[in-house]
Every structure is written in C-alpha cells, then in structure tokens.
Amino acid sequence: MATAVDLAALRPAVEDFLYAEAELLDNWQLEEWAAALFTEDAIYRAPALDDPTRDPANSVFLINDDLPRIQSRARQLLGDTAWAENPRSTTRRLITNVRILSVEGNTIRASANFLIQRSRMERIVTYVGQYRYKLVRNGASFKIAERIVLLAQDTLRSQGVMSIIV
Amino acid sequence: MDTLTPQRRNSVDGLFVEDTQAGIFRFSPKVYCDPELFRDEQKRIFDRCWLYAGHESELAKPGDFLTRRVGGRPLLFVRGADGTIRLFHNSCRHRGAMVCRERAGSAKNFTCFYHYWTYGTDGALIGVPGADSYGPAFAQGEMGLYPVRHESYRGWIFVCFSRDSVGLIEYLAEARDLLDMILDQDEQGSVILPGAHEYSMRANWKMLMENTVDIYHLNSTHSRFMYDYLPHVLGLKPPNPNTANDGAVSPKALGNGHAMIEYKKFSGVADEAKRKAWQAKFGVERANRMLDYTRTLLLFPNTLFIEQRRVIRTTFPLAPDQSEVTGFPLMPAIDDPAVRKQRLDIYLSFLGPAGFATPDDNEVMELIQKNCAGLPDDAMIDCSRGMLSTAPKPQDEAQQRAFWRHWRDVMGAA
Q1: What is the pLDDT of residue B3?
Q2: Is B358 on the interface with A (CB under 8 A)?
Q3: Is A156 a domain residue?
Q4: What's the number of domains chain A is made of?
Q5: CB-based contact B195 A68, cutoff 8 Å
C-alpha cells in the first residue's frame, strides 16, 4: 500500500509523461503517439457526456478504441483524406491538476484536468474535462493501458464535432 | 391554414429548374441560406409535419420521464401510473416556467420551482399552494399541462403541432412498409440504448437529409473510413462503388417526401436457418431483401434511419446556417452479446462527433454553407444524377429529388 508521500513522489514523473504526450498531440506527431505510448491491450475511451459510468457493451460512447483503432485513428488523421482535419487544426493543450490516485505494483492510476483549444478555418472551439489514466511502468517512463476522457460538457452542440484526438 | 398569393408559388418554383426530358434537376443555394425561407419552413414544415420525437423504450416503467426539445419546443414525455405514455409542453400553467429540468428519470410528480405548482404523471395539476385565493372560475381540473398531439408506430413516437394535419399512418404513406421491413428484423422488439450523440453543424438542416441518403460520396468524402478503417482494422475489402449495389431495389419516393435507398450489406452472411424461417414468414423475395441488403430511410422532413448502422438521426434547424443533430442508437431488444458488440462498433466507427465519418460530413456541409450566400444570384446546385435512368442506383440522386420535390410543394402550396 503506497503512502501519500509515495504517491506525491511519483507525480513529477507522471506529469512529465502527460506533458510529453500533450506535446506529441499538439505537434501532430500522431504516429509516434500511437506507436510508442500504448500497451498492446490499451483502450482509449470517451464515454457519453450524461453518464460516464455506463458499460460500453450496452451503450454508445463517443470514442471506444482498442489499439488497432487508436493506430487507425492516428493514421487517418495524418493522411490527407481526413477532410475535417485537412487543413489541420492548431491545438494547444493545458494539462493541470495531476493527481496520482493509486499505485499497485507496476500499475499507476492518475487523473489530470485538460483544456484543449482547437483553432481552424477562423473558428475556435474548446474541449474541457478530465483524463483518467491507467499507466504501466516502462523502464524510467510509462505506457498507457487506459486513457479515459471525461468531458465536462453536457453536449457537443457548441463544438460541433470532435475531429482531433482529445 | 395560411394562404399564399400566386407570386409566392412562383417564387418557390423559381428556386428550381426541373427538366425531366433533358434529365436536369437544379436548385438555388438560397434554399440553404435565405432567412425568409427559413421562417417559412418553421410554419409550413416543422409546425405541420409529423416529427420523430422519441421511442417508447426510453420510458420503460410507470413514472419514467424524459425532457427533449422537438421542433424547437421543450417537451415532457411521461409514462403514467396507468402505463400510458403522454407528451406535454414542459411549461407550467401558472407563469410558463419549465416544470421538469432533468433530462430523464423517474418521478411520482413534477413541481415547478417558481411557486411549487405540482403536476401528476398524467399532467393533471394536483397542487397549488394557497389554492383558496383563486375564485371558482379558476377550474384547477382544467389546468393540467398542455398536451402535445402524438402517435406511436411500433414504438417510434412522433409528434405533430398542428391539429389539422392527417394522422401518422396516412402521413407515413409507403414509408410504413419500409419501417415494417426494418423493424420486423428485431423479432423481440427494439430499444434505444443510452448515449445518444448530440452535436451540431454550421450548415442548413436539409443538407444532412441529402447527405445521409447520398451513396455517391462514400468513396471520396469517406475515403479514410473505406480505405483505412475497413481494410486495416476490420480486414474487409472496400466494395467496388460501380458494382457494389447491383441487385438492390432502386431508390424510391415513398410519398409525402419520404424516400429510401437500398444497398448491399458490406459484410456478414445470414445464417441459413434464419433465412428459411424469414422466407416462410415474410415471403422469399422480401426475406432475401431483408437479409442481403440494407436500407436508409428518409422520413420527411427531418428523420433518417440508417439500417446498417442502426441510428435514428434527427436534425432541427436553429438558424438557416446552424442545425442540431442527434443520433439515437436503436438496437434489437434481445441480442447476443458478441453481435451487440459488433453492432456498436459498426455504429461508433462511422458515426458521432468523434467517428471516422461524421466529422468529414460536417466539414463538407459547412463548406457548402460558407458558399451559399455569396454565390451569383442565378447560381444553381446540381441534383441531376441518374435522372434519365429508368432504374436509378443508390449512388444516383433520385432520393434527394423526392425530398426536394415535396419540399417545393409544401413551401409553395397555396
């Protein structure tokens, strides 16, 4: 059982990892993001906005990707026929409030708040919410086993769509 | 009934060029951006047509309720203690405030927080603080929530804000038979799953009606879905656009502006036991159509059902260039978990704000919208594809023309 001190001691390394991930996404280095950061059984999910606790086997999510879908999503966005992102959005991600929730063996659960501004074709939209990560130690760094996006919005009516990786 | 001068009729006709001999069907981009047409659509279409509003499965038990804006009006749907589903304007009979502010839930009654007037699940006004201050003419028994005209067809709840419009069955016309063909496949009924996608587009609502029944754009607009996701994630060969839909019934106008397209299923082989049973139940030809082909149904004005993806999709305009879009997943009530998983994957891979197709549809519709108002006054949008063919294909535009001809009739009618 990790103590509060142990959890706090882990935070800088997790923060560095999340900031590096955000930089890859903002720089459109999606191939590196999809190829290097995930475990083989990774999931990337964004549950429905009205209830994040539902089972994806019996409800519709916004995103429910396994690794092949994560990699396809990245490839699609880098190709020139993801028309919604061609030309590409300019994004900047603010990752804050990083907290280590638990440590069990090599598995770390962490949360972080995010604010993403996306600008494209004279329009600016923001996505705000919280990430829930399950990270697995990988040498001095980590791999992502779960990347759950909890948007703090009751609809996407004002954003229209979510064409980037959030 | 409002009446229109002959000039009005001409002005709507003037938006269209239709020459059946030459095979030309064109319309002015003003249909997407003209503010006067937009106001007229509200009166002539959204205040008069039957609109898909919800599904009975969303209100499973007595006391279950949901609130939803339909045709711009906040509505309250409730299943009463007697099991009956009722729809009301979600507005207190005292000062008009919204009575129920939850999206969905279960309740014994509904209290407006302004002065604590309380209504039963049957809409009756059952509580008025200080009721003795009103005179006998106040008639509390007649002060229930305003009911909304509604009818259900096989679980689909439609509303109509006009008392003069024909009933739902007559309104659905031949689309009813297509709905039967779709819904008969769910032998134990169908249910809406939670997680409806609620998003929007900065484009006119009618573009979504056209886009959703457009097969022609699949290989270009949805290139990334067809040539990355299908082969590299699912291991499926993208269908050849020229031959993929051979054997499908031609796109059909179904009356009252409704239309359907039919196309070959991408994948999946029907099991032979099911085929035999369905052939006995529905006839050989119909059963084979149900099993080997899939349909997209357009219900005028603003509802679509994509059978392959199992989405009921509605769009409501907020402005000529701003529309809300909602996708409701309609799945068989009883499903094998592995099949359900596959259905959800087919749904989510393509649809929704973060799907591999919807954002690209939004993109193209928003690009059209950006051009509309700035084009030359006599500019035209072309919708002529397959017009000279006696057997148009789903990749033609006969289905869009069925929608537009009815829109033209409704908007130009005396």
Answers
A1: 46
A2: yes
A3: no
A4: 1
A5: no
The secondary structure of B319-348, three-state, reads ECCEEEEEEEEEEECCCCHHHHHHHHHHHH
Task: Name which of B345, B353, B366 is nearest A62 (Cβ-Cβ).
Answer: B353
Contacts with B15 (C-beta within 8 Å, 6 or more apart), sequence order: B27, B28, B30, B31, B408
Encoding tokens for residue B400?
């869009």
pLDDT tens column, B22-43: 999 999 999 999 999 999 999 9
As for the ipTM of the complex, it is: 0.96
Find chain A residues with C-beta within 8 A of B364's C-beta: 83
Least confident piece of the model among B109-113, B229-233, B268-272, B341-345: B268-272
The per-residue pLDDT for B211 is 98
A136 located within any domain: yes
Fold of B174-412: Naphthalene 1,2-dioxygenase Alpha Subunit; Chain A, domain 1 (3.90.380)
Q: Which residues form the domain of A54?
A: 4-151
pLDDT-above-90 percentage for chain A: 94
Check B197 against A162: CB less than 8 A apart: no
User: B-chain residues within 8 Å CB-CB of A62?
Assistant: 197, 352-354
Order of strands across the sheet that contains B16-19: B16-19, B24-27, B381-382
Closest CA to B51 of B75, B34, B78, B33: B75
pLDDT tens, residue by residue, B99-140? 999 999 999 999 999 999 999 999 999 999 999 999 999 999
* Domains B52-153 and B174-412 belong to one CATH topology: no
Question: Domain of A32: which CATH number?
Answer: 3.10.450.50
Is it true that domain B52-153 has CATH number 2.40.170.20?
Answer: no
- List the domain boundaries for chain B: 52-153, 174-412
Residue A159 located in a structural domain: no
Residue B66 has phi, psi (to 5 degrees) of: -150, 155
Question: CB distance B348–A60 less than 8 Å?
Answer: yes
The tens digit of pLDDT for each residue in B137-164 reads 999 999 999 999 999 999 999 999 999 9
CA torsion sign for A156, A157, A159, A160 is positive
Query: Is residue A157 assigned to a domain?
Result: no
Which residue numbers in chain A have pLDDT < 70?
1
**Does B2 have pLDDT greater than 80?**
no
